[in-house]
Amino acid sequence: MNTLTLNPGRLFALGRSELTLLIRNRAALSVALMMPLVMVFVLRSSLGEFELDGGAAAIGEATLTGGIGMVLVLVVYMNLVSAYVARREELVLKRLRTGEANDLEILAGSALPAAALALLQVVVLTVAGAAALDVRTPQNPLLLVAAVLAGIVLLAGLSAVTSAFTRNVESAGLTTLPLFLITSVGSGLFVPLETLPDKLASVCELLPLTGVMTMVRAGWLGTADAGGAGGAGDLTTAAVVTLAWIVIAVFAVQRWFRWEPRR
Question: Which string of DSSP letters, residue by residue, matches 175-235?
């Protein structure tokens, strides 16, 4: 991969082009807009089966923090895998590499619309969801924002890695399924980690999105009120795990990302 500098002009031009393509693809846009909302209702039903300290308020907060995770997975990860594969198969990525844009600008520019859409949905989910479920708003919004941004960067990288092993857009649903299922169960989106056996929970703490979700929950609950997920030690571990996965994703992209169709 060539130089890692970013030119804002080229970056936003690429992002604008990708946004135009996303808007024209009604199927992809509908999934990105509607699926997270549907999954929030599924989360609400799933979490209602568990007895959480705090009663209905705790279930509401778990629903919204889990919903933020679903937005990141569905809008950023799954949407971007399809986008990268489609642009590769259409030779768009190959043509872009012959121009002035460097590799990082091409990848980041392609990810901008998904990132912006995810941020918008997180804001709507935070404001409207908190009002609808009658729960308190985030107690540490800066930590919540940092966690969401870290999640976007991580999942954008993982989507680029996954695209390298995805032959076409039609098979993207299969190649993204493992991370979706592992994250949904093991990172605390559908099943609270505290309900899992201790050894299994310790393993799940090392999954790609678990660190991000730990910081999301701590940002919503406030570090003083987040219990086991919000102590300084747990947050440090979550940040280190997240950073480690970002480094792994960057290395994997440099090593395996494909810019041209398979021959």
Answer: HTHHHHHHHHHHTSSSS-GGGS-HHHHHHHTTSTTHHHHHHHHHHHH-TTT-GGGTSHHHH
Q: Which amino acid is at 217?
A: R
Alpha carbon 216 to its chain centroid, in Å, reads 12
* Cβ 69 vs Cβ 189: under 8 Å: yes
More confident residue, 163 or 67: 163
CB-facing half-sphere around the CA of 51: CA atoms within 13 A = 0
Q: Which of 125, 90, 96 is nearest to 13 (CA)?
A: 96
Sign of CA dihedral 142, 240, 120, 92: positive
- Are 114 and 76 in contact by the 8 Å Cβ rule? The answer is yes
CB 175 within 8 A of CB 166: yes
> How far is residue 172's CA from residue 192's CA, in Å, rounded to a whole number?
28
Question: Which phi and psi (to 5°) does residue 52 adopt?
Answer: -105, 145
pLDDT digits (tens, 9 = 90+) for 213-261: 999 999 998 864 444 444 455 888 999 999 999 999 999 999 999 999 8
Q: Considering only CA atoms, which of 21, 212, 208, 209 is closest in space to residue 109? A: 21
- The H or E element containing residue 164 is helix 141-164
The first and second tokens of residue 45, run together, are 């039903």
